[in-house]
Design goal:
With 257 residues, the protein is an alpha/beta fold. It is built from nine helices and ten strands. Helix 6 links the parallel strand 7 and strand 8. It is globular. The chain binds adenosine-5'-triphosphate (ATP) and magnesium ion. This is ABC-type multidrug transport system, ATPase component.
């Protein structure tokens, strides 16, 4: 099966001279969750923004379902739903008003929107928060609302930048039930960034480890653990830490090109 997203040799240097992506190539498989991992500043958000058309790379290609889609195009907006790392809500509008507003952005009819909002409220367990103005929502609930907003138009591809930051264990479990349901029941594809390795181990079929703007590893978490520790059973977190230490060490030695 062709990948949902293919990235070829992507470069991005910001105006201040910071090179955030340095020739990144990667593939995101369809109908599963792919997690992008990596240290702070590795280029994860730059990658996500490039896929969504919110940031223009200097070089390279982003193909979504084999098509090169122009930033801001209607095709792109229909195909993907996005919740970024610093998304904002209108503090005076309620959660329900945000959902209605989002449905109007996608020109959904009142009846379709009504039905979809009911589904999303159920999926993300937002029932008791609907009438609260956004300023009164807790951090975890805001993040669930962002995901519900991203899914309103039934995109095939959901892209989330650190969606579970600040979620308590119960909210996190509700969140993952919704995401796993999107993948299994609606044949959705999810690309997300996270620093929580235990949730990657449990919910992501694939991982992409970014270091210094390039891909250090792509594959399934089980293979990565075996690759890093062939003779022992280690957690994904320990395997990740070993990888990062080895990477830093080889940079210091000048051995990694
Ligand atoms: N708008 C910008 N202007 C200049 N430099 C930027 C900008 N956005 C990001 N950077 C720099 O680009 C590099 C990659 O940043 P990016 O936000 O993509 O990393 P990240 O992996 O998402 O980090 P984090 O885990 O902290 O979210 C960093 O060095 C960052 O400081
Ligand atoms: Mg980031």
């Amino acid at each position: 099966m062709t990948p949902a997203i293919e990235i070829r040799n992507l470069y991005k240097t910001y105006r201040n001279g910071t090179e955030a992506l340095s020739g990144l190539s990667m593939q995101v498989a369809r109908n599963c969750t792919t997690a992008v991992l990596g240290p702070n500043g590795a280029g994860k958000s730059t990658l996500v923004r490039s896929v969504c058309g919110l940031c223009t790379p200097d070089r390279g290609e982003v193909l979504i379902q084999e098509r090169r889609i122009q930033p801001g195009s209607r095709d792109l907006a229909t195909l993907i739903g996005v919740a970024g790392q610093d998304n904002d809500l209108d503090p005076d509008e309620t959660a329900l008003q945000h959902l209605w507003f989002q449905s109007r952005l996608y020109r959904m009819s009142r009846a379709t929107a009504h039905h979809r909002i009911e589904e999303l409220v159920e999926l993300f367990q937002l029932q008791s928060h609907l009438e609260k103005p956004a300023r009164n929502l807790s951090g975890g609930t805001r993040r669930k609302l962002h995901c519900a907003l991203a899914l309103i138009h039934r995109p095939q591809l959901l892209i989330l930048d650190e969606p579970t930051v600040g979620m308590d264990p119960e909210v996190r479990q509700e969140f993952w039930q919704a995401i796993d349901g999107f993948v299994r029941q609606q044949q959705g594809t999810v690309l997300l960034t996270t620093q929580y390795l235990e949730e990657v181990d449990r919910h992501a079929a694939q991982m992409i480890l970014l270091v210094d703007g390039i891909s250090g590893y792509q594959g399934c978490t089980g293979e990565f653990k075996k690759h890093m520790h062939p003779d022992s059973t280690e957690s994904l977190e320990n395997s990740y830490l070993t990888f990062i230490r080895q990477h830093r060490h080889s940079i210091e030695q000048g051995g990694l090109q």
